[in-house]
Design brief:
The complex is a heterotrimer of chains A (297), B (317) and C (367).
Chain A: E1 2-5, H1 19-22, H2 25-49, H3 85-92, H4 94-120, H5 123-137, H6 141-151, H7 156-184, H8 187-193, H9 198-236, H10 247-255, H11 264-291
Chain B: H1 4-37, H2 42-50, H3 54-64, H4 70-82, H5 96-131, H6 136-151, H7 154-169, H8 182-195, H9 198-214, H10 217-224, H11 229-264, H12 269-279, H13 282-310
Chain C: E1 7-18, E2 23-35, E3 40-44, H1 51-59, E4 66-77, E5 80-83, H2 88-91, E6 92-97, E7 100-106, H3 108-119, E8 127-130, H4 134-137, H5 144-155, H6 161-174, H7 180-184, H8 193-206, E9 211-215, H9 223-240, E10 243-248, H10 251-257, E11 260-265, E12 268-274, H11 275-279, H12 288-295, H13 300-305, H14 337-345, E13 351-354, E14 357-359
Parallel strand pairs in C: 3-10, 3-11, 8-9, 9-10
Antiparallel strand pairs in C: 1-2, 1-4, 4-5, 6-7, 11-12, 12-14, 13-14
Classes of the chains: A mainly alpha (297), B mainly alpha (317), C alpha/beta (367).
Chain lengths: 297, 317, 367
């Protein structure tokens, strides 16, 4: 039984409705959670930068190996060398921050450079750009990274450059689709008819007014991917190297003790990864639904 | 005029084949460029194993009309690859091709199996939720579950499964490959199929597509004439999106296979690539990248073929 | 003719719910009309007046809630008369307050099941439907002939493939598609809109239904194609004597094909009667809305006289904020002082003012 109730006799204007009624509750919750995670990550990053940590992340304590949360002032317990997990988690974020930014910037810049001409001019240029996108898409990201590692060295910056480049096609496709959509609605023709310069149309009207939401969404999703990728590479032994902490190598080093029944040293960073990436993914999708009005009631 | 649809199919197929070839050539150029830029001189090592005598090498040089310029190196490498010669492994000293063949079959088993698992789980859920006008009942927990799964580090998920199977079922899934029991195959396939995060995406994409197609005018026409909605919505609502998703997810699944093969000791391309990356074993890693890329290209070629076969007149860029 | 009509719609109500505004959209609220055997009834109204929703309600094709919430749709077939909304009351509960629907509870799943069970015997077999936008209404993944043959095999005695193919070719010829054998094998994507609509008509008629619902069959086609489609419909009408409910906003199409006409405004039928009476510009007893509608259509006479076309004042009715009184009150130019009070506050009933001529207006109200 489904019940429909008319709450008002005189219907109010749509624009005056509060936010909650305007958008799906789920999307608002997604974005709220995502923003919370982003805040946490930022706070942790700066806390790590300025050494505001509960313990020294490198201090080895052989008396307290793999202790559960709450032991002796260690809020999240200690790892297999008795190091404080919480401090290592906070410092571990630094492993992602700049490399992740690098990957995202490459993906976004490349996506704009390829996506705008493809959508704006179409034709032969679009065909060429589709070819480039397909070419990049032909490489499984992980395998390409292994190739680069073999050719150069297992460095997080090399890895993130590859990640950025392999992220370009998705952004380019999203942008050129958006521009195609705009031109379908004669948006671009109208702008041209108004005598606007091409530069103004592309940068102000297309990119700034119509693609910024899309770029923010891609950036958020990209950050989540960067963390997951580093985790996988840590497992393969090519990520950030011990003793510098990263969430990936924390899970990896803790996992050695996992099968013996010592869950905590790897579960703690794994949960950190889980909730953080969940945050980025939910933020991305929630923003997508709200800003791009996908769910549209 | 009578044969027109078939001619259209033929022409489009040839075009797709040509495009695939072109992309594979592009892939080889990229691989070559990366190795060319690498420090050291991998290609002298590479040619060392392939061309046994100095005489032959000299002949190649003469044939290329120059010293070992970059394009001479590229073409000599490309031609030997095309004739099935991927060089010899730096580590083992054996020809790469034979081993490459067996490991790629193993990886193919793993990826196809996990793809099937993903589809078996995702397709019914997607279609079920698409049929309901309001997807609140089943949709909410499922969506959350999908998000959680795709946020989980794959290898950690694998460890959980191993732990459960050891302590819950007294079964040790890590035994090296060789088909000791079908479970040794099934567990890795399950981990890759369920844990790689594709399920939630497949569900979402398929549900979106199906919901859109169910709202199409022609499905309304089908209902109005009393015909089966499924029959009419199947091609655009199920067949096309599923093949599209498979094609698009192959690189992703192959990446996941690297991890899963590592966890379960599965002797596939991923493990071999990992070993090669450790050893800087160029011939091996190059061969693997080329084969992985051709898998990806084959997948999208297949998708294009289904697309053309389903409707010869509808072209999409 | 009126004693036992083929289709009789009585006081149909179809609502939707706006999640944004937390209010009902009264898409159809009070449609009453009937279609006799081998008769064509035209249903006219502005866009948004609920014409198409009426047709979709009859076919049970609506998606989205709450949908049909009240009324009767009687249809007479070889198996006797049946109310297509037979069990609806068991699934719907409507609460009204001061004549306004305030809440609707509907077991949509249950009703959909019950409705599908009833409609299974009617869709395609008894009632066929053609739509606007013929190009998107044909399945792009099936050949044109395949779609017609499917309809034939589903609903007629021609069950075998070759028989169905032959019948389909016959119908393709009948709707004047040139080289039917060739067209049989083509996909809709390579056919023009007019051609697609012919194929749609062939598909609808090939099942040999007793009724055809044509929902804006000429909308979205070029003007020359439009008139050809109307010619075709006229021809098929005189040959097959099929009962037709013709929905259109185009009065010229309606006047060429209809025996009787129903005028819709704001989800309700405001006038229903013989085409000649309703559409005649010199007829005295006319609903103010009908009069305004006809004055807004260019005719040769008006063009010759160079007289101004009369646009209807005001905006199309907001079907969420339906006024309490006559729905046309705000735009009506014939409100007189004597009835102003009633026009503003009371919704007029549909009354028979002369034999077969129904009107929903206080101007002509009896008693």
């Amino acid at each position: 039984m489904k019940k429909y109730i008319q709450t008002t006799v005189d219907v109010v204007d749509y624009s005056s409705l509060p936010l909650v009624q305007k958008y799906a509750l789920a999307d608002l919750l997604y974005v709220a959670y995502g923003l919370l995670i982003v805040m946490l990550v930022l706070v942790s990053y700066f806390a790590g930068m300025f050494d505001m940590l509960p313990h020294d992340p490198q201090q080895i304590n052989m008396d307290l190996l793999m202790s559960p949360p709450g032991t002796d002032g260690h809020l999240l317990g200690t790892d297999f060398m008795g190091r404080d997990i919480l401090s290592r988690l906070i410092v571990g974020i630094q492993a992602y921050f700049l490399p992740g930014m690098l990957a995202i910037s490459i993906a976004l810049a490349g996506g704009v450079i390829l996506g705008v001409p493809a959508g704006y001019w179409g034709g032969r240029i679009a065909t060429c750009i589709t070819y480039i996108s397909n070419l990049v898409d032909s490489f499984p990201r992980m395998v390409l990274i292994l190739l680069v590692i073999a050719a150069f060295k297992p460095d997080i910056y090399y890895i993130m450059i590859v990640m950025g480049i392999t992220g370009v096609p998705a952004v380019a496709t999203a942008i050129s689709n958006k521009i195609y959509f705009l031109s379908q609605k004669n948006f671009i023709e109208a702008a041209r008819a108004l005598g606007l310069r091409r530069r103004v149309i592309i940068f102000k009207h297309i990119l700034w007014y119509n693609c910024r939401a899309l770029l923010i969404i891609q950036a958020t999703l990209g950050m989540g991917e960067a963390i997951l990728l580093e985790t996988s590479l840590s497992y393969l032994g090519f990520g950030v190297q011990e003793p510098v902490p990263s969430w990936g190598n924390m899970v990896q080093s803790g996992a050695n003790y996992f099968l013996q029944g010592n869950f905590w040293p790897s579960t703690a960073p794994a949960l950190a990864i889980l909730f953080t990436i969940l945050g980025f993914n939910l933020l991305g999708d929630g923003l997508n639904n709200i800003l791009e009005d996908r769910r549209g009631k | 005029m009578k044969n027109r649809p078939y001619r259209v199919i033929l022409i489009t197929l040839l075009r797709e084949l040509f495009l695939t070839m072109l992309l594979l050539v592009g892939v080889s150029v990229v691989v070559f460029a990366i190795l060319y830029a690498a420090p050291g001189d991998p290609f002298s090592a590479l040619l060392e194993g392939q061309l046994a005598t100095d005489e032959v090498r000299e002949q190649i040089r003469i044939a290329m009309g120059a010293q070992q310029s970059w394009y001479a190196q590229y073409f000599s490498w490309l031609f030997s690859v095309l004739s099935g010669n991927f060089g010899t492994s730096v580590r083992t000293g054996l020809p790469v091709s034979g081993e490459l063949f067996t490991v790629s079959i193993n990886t193919l088993k793993l990826t196809v199996g996990s793809m099937l698992i993903t589809l078996l789980v995702a397709v019914p859920i997607a279609l079920y939720t698409a049929m309901r006008d309001h997807r609140v009942v089943l949709g909410w927990p499922l969506t959350m579950f999908g998000y959680l799964i795709s946020s989980l580090p794959l290898f950690w998920f694998g460890y959980i499964i191993i732990y459960i199977s050891i302590h819950g079922f007294h079964f040790f899934p890590l035994a090296s490959f060789g088909g000791e029991s079908w479970l040794h195959t099934l567990v890795p396939v399950l981990v890759l199929g369920l844990g790689s995060g594709t399920i939630s995406e497949v569900i979402r994409q398929l549900r979106e597509e199906m919901t859109r197609v169910l709202g199409e005018d022609y499905v309304r026409t089908a209902r109005a004439k009393g015909a089966s909605v499924w029959k009419h919505a199947f091609k655009e609502g199920v067949l096309l999106p599923v093949t599209e998703i498979i094609a698009a997810k192959i690189p992703f699944i192959l990446g996941g296979a690297v991890i899963v093969e590592q966890i379960f000791n599965w002797p596939g391309m991923g493990r071999m690539a990992w070993q090669a990356a450790l050893d800087r074993d160029f011939p091996v890693i190059m061969g693997i990248v080329l084969i992985a890329a051709s898998f990806v290209r084959m997948g999208s070629l297949l998708q294009r073929m289904v697309f053309i076969a389903v409707n010869p007149h509808r072209q999409r860029e | 003719m009126n004693s036992s009509p083929l289709l009789r719609i009585e006081n149909l109500r179809t609502f939707f719910y706006s999640q944004r505004k937390h209010a009902f959209v009264r898409a159809v609220d009070g449609v009453t009309l009937d279609v006799g055997r081998s008769e064509t009834v035209g249903l006219v109204g502005e866009s948004g007046s609920g014409k198409s929703i009426t047709a979709m309600s009859v076919m049970g094709l609506l998606r989205g809630g709450p949908g049909v919430i009240g009324g009767r749709i009687e249809f007479e077939s070889a198996h006797g008369r049946q109310n297509l909304l037979e069990k609806l009351q068991a699934f719907v509960e409507v609460h009204e307050q001061n004549g306004r629907v305030m809440s609707v509870s509907k077991d949509e799943k249950g009703w959909r099941k019950a409705s599908e069970r009833i409609m299974r015997n009617y869709r395609g077999k008894e009632i066929s439907m053609i739509f606007q936008n013929p190009r998107t209404s044909l399945n792009p993944y099936m050949t044109v002939g395949g779609q017609i043959a499917e309809s034939i095999r589903l609903h007629t005695a021609n069950r075998s493939e070759s028989e169905a193919r032959e019948r389909a070719l016959y119908w393709l010829e009948r709707v004047k598609i040139d080289s039917p054998k060739l067209r049989y094998k083509t996909y809709p994507a390579v056919m023009s809109g007019g051609m697609c609509q012919r194929a749609m008509i062939a598909m609808a008629l090939s099942a040999e239904p007793s009724m055809l619902i044509a929902d804006e069959p000429t909308t979205g086609l070029d003007a020359t194609i439009q008139s050809k489609i109307v010619d075709l419909l006229e021809e098929l009408k005189s040959e097959t004597h099929i009962s037709t409910l013709l929905i259109s906003h185009d009065i010229s199409v309606i006047s060429r094909l209809s025996d009787r006409v129903a005028i819709m405004y704001g989800g309700a039928v405001v006038e229903f009667g013989p085409a000649r009476q309703v559409l005649d510009p010199h007829e005295e007893a006319r609903h103010p809305y009908t009069a305004a509608l006809i004055d807004s259509v260019p005719s040769q006479q008006k063009i010759r006289d160079k007289s101004n076309l009369q646009a209807i004042e005001g905006d199309v009715l907001d079907t969420i904020n339906v006024p309490a009184g006559c729905r046309f009150y705000d735009r009506c130019n014939r409100v007189k002082d004597g009835i102003r009070e009633r026009c503003a506050t009371q919704h007029p009933p549909l009354q028979e003012i002369s034999s077969g001529h129904h009107m929903r207006c206080w101007l002509f109200a009896k008693g």
